[in-house]
Amino acid sequence: DLFACSIGPGSFTGVRIGVTIAKTISYCLNIPIKVISSLEVLASNVTGVDNKIVAFSSNGTRSCRNGDHCR
Questions:
Q1: Computed from CA positions of residues 41, 12, 59, 63, in that sequence, does the dihedral angle turn out positive or negative?
Q2: Are 68 and 52 a contacting pair, CB within 8 Å?
Q3: What gap in Å lies between CA 13 and CA 23, rounded to an integer?
Q4: pLDDT digit string, tens, across residues 41-70
Q5: Is the dihedral of CA 23, 33, 4, 67 positive or negative?
Q6: Are 5 and 33 in contact (CB under 8 A)?
Q7: What's the pTM?
Q8: What is the DSSP code string of the chain?
Q9: How does residue 27 score in pLDDT terms, banded at 50, 70 and 90?
Q10: Which of 70, 56, 71, 62 is nearest to 9 (CA)?
Q11: Would strands 3-6 and 33-36 be described as parallel, antiparallel, or unpaired?
Q12: Residue 7: C-alpha distances to residues 47, 49, 50, 51, 58 (Å)
């Protein structure tokens, strides 16, 4: 068993709160924690592709974030 926690991209305060809660519970229960990018989660849902995946996410300010993920 382990805890998984998103490290963004996302709202700065939301990510900080989520990581703090996950680290606290993980420490108290002595359970390992794994961090993962939100874009990596998006890319992991793609099926039928064996090559490079580029995930994009809008940040609400007419720009976007991207991340490259290879399988």
A1: negative
A2: yes
A3: 15
A4: 777 777 777 777 777 766 666 666 666 655
A5: positive
A6: yes
A7: 0.61
A8: --EEEE--SS-HHHHHHHHHHHHHHHHHHT--EEEE-HHHHHHHT--S--S-EEEEEE-SSS-EEEEEE--
A9: very high
A10: 56
A11: parallel
A12: 23, 25, 25, 24, 16
Q: Determine the residue type at 1.
A: D
Q: Residue 12 corresponds to which amino acid?
A: F
Question: How far is residue 6's CA from residue 15's CA, in Å, rounded to a whole number?
Answer: 7
Q: What residues contact 16, with CB distance under 8 A and at least 6 apart?
A: none
Task: Report the distance separating Cα 48 and Cα 16, nearest Å.
Answer: 34
Which amino acid appears at position 55 of this protein? Answer: A
